[in-house]
Amino acid sequence: MTNDELLAGFLDRSLNEDQLLEFEARQQQDPAFAHEVNDMLTVEGLLKTSAPSGMAPAGFLVAVESAVALRVASTTSAGAAVGSVFSSTWAWVAGAGLAAIGAAAIYFGVPSANVPGAKVPSAKVPSANVPSATVPSAKVPGAMVPSAKVPGAKVPGANVQISTLANQHTSTPANQHTSTPANQQTNLGVDTEYESTLAKLKKDLEACRASGDHIRCTQIALQIGRTYRERKLSDGAMTYLSMALEEAREARIIQYEVDAYGEIGLLLRDDGKILEGNASFQQAIDLGERHGIDVTRWTRSIR
Amino acid sequence: MTYELLSDEDIFALIRDHNDEQAYRALYRRYDKRIYAYCLRALGNHEEAKDVFQTVAMTVYDKRSSFTEGSYAAWLFTITRNMCLKTIRNRKNQTEFIEESFPFESAETHGQDFLLTEALRKAISKLSDDFRDALELRYYDDLSYEEIAETLGITVALAKVRVFRAKKQLTKTLSPILGELR
After folding, report:
1. Are B37 and B143 contacting, i.e. CB atoms less than 8 angstroms apart?
2. Are A268 and A233 in contact (CB under 8 A)?
3. Are B20 and A72 inside 8 Å of each other by CB?
């Protein structure tokens, strides 16, 4: 083996026993090689410890996480709603037939409300409930224009949403007043979208509570509660997190129960109720530990 | 469910197939800091790094159905790398960013020899793009050779060669300083 092959193998820890013996022998016979090995090890050590640790601005990563998580939760509920309508082939056939009748009615100038049954599918499958309506399809690699580089230009809605969430996370009432009219307009649009997503989630939550799907109810209630908490809307947050806790107990999914206790702890802590918050964290920890669930996040949250 | 015990690919399957929000959060937290650091390193400023990071986060979810096999880390870094490259290509005024102060923590804050770390950074910046990409993915982003190969679209053997040669080149460039340390 050449020196380079031995050295590469040594650094990758891929040499077998014989090759390691050869490597050591080569080092003893060839001082230049020994120096090279030392230098390479120094550089490798330096590389491992000198990784640039560029920190993201405070709250940014959490805001992005929340924004995408909201979409995940939204997709779950909207997808399930659509799925429940078209869960059978017959429903698809019926839906397609009714849609055709509706289309024909529109084409011939007949109000669709006058066509028997035409109202049903269009009312049950509103396009706004489909995730793609809130997720611009243009958001594929290559189609993006960084929002900050083109102020006021056509920016995909989801991107604006995250940016605004990030701003909300760190903004104060004072700097909200200093925003420009253009920003206000953008924020207004985002808030509207945000509110409509929340409204949709709440509607889905009602529907799933009626159907008794406790797992999905827990997911949605947790998401709504978490979103309210992040927006500093304590009352709404407590309502939905408590609901999530109840649903998690019904569903008997300990992970969600732990999450709900933890989220309630964060909410109480944010409201300055440190002792109550700690008590809730402790419940999350005790429950999690009893069931072998990772509770590091809540352990760290206790003050 | 304890996501800690699941692989990236298993968690991603929960997101893709069941829209599991908790799974999404678990997987996001495994990579958020690394991806942001990658963007910042590649782009050199927080403004663009934030834009690209957001886009990556959205794209990963939007394109979830397109990932069915292979390494999730490699797929994620491929998306990130492509978006960073595209952003760099789209810069109208490149000089605006070239000499901008590098927004990373000072090496001094890590208690390391400042001169040596600075020399290393300069040496890395002089590597060819191919070598630097492979080296940084290995040491800064903690990817395996297999993941580096997938990210860069090369063979595993070539990934190993590039990393090794990059290190050799760094050693050669830094040899005067290293000689003083001996």
Report:
1. no
2. no
3. yes
Q: What is the pLDDT of residue B93?
A: 53
For residue A106, count other CB atoms closer than 10 A to its CB: 13
Question: How far is the C-alpha of A208 from the C-alpha of A210, rounded, in Å?
Answer: 5
Confidence of residue B117 (pLDDT cuts 50, 70, 90): confident
User: Do A43 and B120 lie within an 8 Å CB cutoff?
Assistant: yes
A36, A79, A294 member nearest B2 (Cβ): A294
CA angle A166, A172, A178 (to 5 degrees): 95
Choose, out of A144, A159, A204, A218, the residue to mutate when testing the contact with B (most B CBs < 10 Å): A144
Q: What φ, ψ does residue B69 adopt, rounded to 5°?
A: -150, 170
A159 vs B58: CB contact, 8 Å cut-off?
Answer: yes
In chain A, which residues have their Cβ closer than 8 Å to the Cβ of B51?
144, 146-149, 159
Contacts of B63 in chain A (CB under 8 A): 140
Task: Report which residue type is found at A201.
Answer: L
Amino acid B98: pLDDT = 44
Considering only CA atoms, which of A285, A279, A297 is closest in space to residue A258? A285
- Beta-carbon separation of B36 and A46 below 8 A: no
Please list every residue in chain A whose beta carbon sits closer than 8 Å to the beta carbon of residue B49: 54, 56
Contacts of A241 (CB under 8 A, 6+ apart): A221, A222, A225, A226, A229, A260, A263, A264, A267
Q: Could you give the 3-state DSSP secondary structure of residue B122?
A: helix
Residues in chain A: 303
Which among A43, A166, A294 has CB closest to B171? A43
What tokens were used for B79? 């998306």
Instruction: Say yes or no: B114 contacts chain A, CB-CB below 8 A.
Output: no
Per domain, the residue ranges of chain B are 1-101, 108-182
* Fold exhibited by the domain B1-101: Rna Polymerase Sigma Factor; Chain: A (1.10.1740)
Taking every pair of Cα atoms in chain B, the longest distance, rounded to a whole number of angstroms, is 58
Q: Between chains, do B105 and A52 touch, taking CB under 8 Å as contact?
A: yes
Radius of gyration of chain A (CA): 28
Q: Which residues of B touch A72 (CB under 8 A)?
A: 15, 19-21, 24, 61
Q: Is the ipTM of this complex over 0.85?
A: no
Q: Is A181 strand, coil or helix?
A: helix
Mean of per-residue pLDDT scores for chain B: 85
CATH topology assigned to domain B108-182: Arc Repressor Mutant, subunit A (1.10.10)
Say how far apart CA A264 and CA A229 lie, in whole Å: 9
What is the sign of the dihedral through the CA atoms of A65, A71, A72 and A74? positive
pTM, full prediction: 0.52
The rounded average pLDDT for each run of 10 residues, N- to C-terminus, in chain A (303 residues) is 89 88 92 90 86 77 87 66 40 45 42 35 34 34 33 35 41 37 43 74 83 81 86 87 85 81 89 85 85 81 81
